[in-house]
C-alpha cells in the first residue's frame, strides 16, 4: 500500500475528480483533505459536501480529514456523517482531546491527533491508547506550499520513541513541505505516511511526481 497521502488542497479545483483519478491510477489509496475553518487557522477550504461527494465517487479510497478547526462540536460530527474514514484534529484546538478520540472510536472512524511545530511532543503521551495515527506538522498549518521546518526530523524521532515505548501500533504521518528531498529526511526520522500537496499537484505531471516520492519511500 502506498505510503503517500496526496493533499488535494493544491489540486485543480475545476478538474478535481480527474486529478484524483490520475493519482489513484498510480496506486494511491488515501487522500488527505485539509479542512480550514477561518478561525483556528486564517484560511478557508472545504466543507462536508466535498467529502460526501468524494466517497460517492471513490468508495474504496480512504478520505483522511485533517481538521484545522476549533469548533469541534460542529465539525467532527459533520465530517463523520459525511463519510470520513479517518479524522485527525489538533491537540491545540481543544481541551477535550480524550472525548473526541473516544467519539471517533465509537463511530468506527480512525482517529488521529495532530501537533503543531511549537507543541511539545510529550503532550501526545496521555492519548497513545486512543489514537491510530499521530500527525506531526512540518509547517505551521493554514497554507499549502510552505517549506519543511528544519527541526522536524528531531520531532519525528521523539514521537517515534514515545510510540515505541508505548508498544502500540500507531502510524506517524508528516504534513507540510514534503518533496523528494524532505520525504527522505522524514522517512529516516521514522515517518510512515507522507502528505504531499504542491509537490504532487503543482510541480509536474501528477503520476510522475508520485513516482518520484514512491522511489524515495520504497
Ligand atoms: O495541512 C496542510 C496545510 O496546513 C497541508 O496538508 C499541507 O500544507 C500540504 O501542502 P504542501 O505539500 O503544499 O505543503
Ligand atoms: Co494537512
Automatic annotation (TrEMBL):
Q: Which CDD domains match?
A: RPE
Q: Which cofactor does it need?
A: Zn(2+); Co(2+); a divalent metal cation; Mn(2+)
Q: Does the keyword section mention Cell wall biogenesis/degradation?
A: no
Q: In which pathway does it act?
A: Carbohydrate degradation
Q: Which GO terms describe its molecular function?
A: D-ribulose-phosphate 3-epimerase activity; metal ion binding
Q: InterPro entries in the record, alphabetically?
A: Aldolase_TIM, Ribul_P_3_epim, Ribul_P_3_epim-like, RibuloseP-bd_barrel
EC number(s) stated in the UniProt entry for this protein: 5.1.3.1
Positions of substrate binding: 7, 66, 142-145, 175-177, 197-198
Which residues are responsible for catalysis? 34, 175
This protein's GO CC annotations: cytoplasm
The record's free-text note on cofactor binding: Binds 1 divalent metal cation per subunit.
Gene3D superfamilies linked to this entry: Aldolase class I
Query: Does the keyword section mention Isomerase?
Result: yes
Task: Tell me which UniProt keywords the record has, alphabetically.
Answer: Carbohydrate metabolism, Cobalt, Isomerase, Manganese, Metal-binding, Zinc
HAMAP family noted in UniProt: RPE
Return the protein name.
Ribulose-phosphate 3-epimerase
Amino acid at each position: 500500500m502506498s505510503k503517500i497521502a496526496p493533499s488535494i488542497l493544491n489540486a485543480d479545483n475545476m478538474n478535481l475528480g480527474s486529478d484524483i483519478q490520475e493519482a489513484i491510477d498510480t496506486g494511491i489509496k488515501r487522500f488527505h483533505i485539509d479542512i480550514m475553518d477561518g478561525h483556528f487557522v486564517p484560511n478557508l477550504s472545504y466543507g462536508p459536501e466535498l467529502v460526501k461527494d468524494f466517497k460517492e465517487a471513490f468508495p474504496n479510497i480512504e478520505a483522511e480529514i485533517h481538521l484545522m478547526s476549533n469548533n469541534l462540536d460542529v465539525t467532527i460530527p459533520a465530517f463523520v456523517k459525511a463519510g470520513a474514514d479517518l479524522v485527525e484534529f489538533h491537540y491545540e484546538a481543544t481541551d477535550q482531546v480524550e472525548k473526541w478520540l473516544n467519539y471517533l472510536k465509537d463511530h468506527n472512524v480512525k482517529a488521529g491527533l495532530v501537533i503543531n511545530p511549537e507543541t511539545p511532543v510529550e503532550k501526545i503521551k496521555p492519548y497513545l491508547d486512543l489514537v491510530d495515527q499521530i500527525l506531526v506538522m512540518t509547517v505551521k498549518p493554514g497554507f499549502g506550499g510552505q517549506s519543511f521546518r528544519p527541526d522536524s526530523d528531531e520531532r519525528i524521532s521523539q514521537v517515534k520513541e514515545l510510540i515505541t515505548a508505548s508498544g502500540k501500533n500507531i502510524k506517524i504521518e508528516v504534513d507540510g513541505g514534503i518533496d523528494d528531498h524532505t520525504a527522505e529526511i522524514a522517512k529516516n526520522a521514522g515517518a510512515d505516511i507522507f502528505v504531499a500537496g504542491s509537490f504532487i499537484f503543482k510541480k509536474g505531471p501528477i503520476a510522475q511526481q508520485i513516482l518520484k516520492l514512491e522511489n524515495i519511500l520504497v
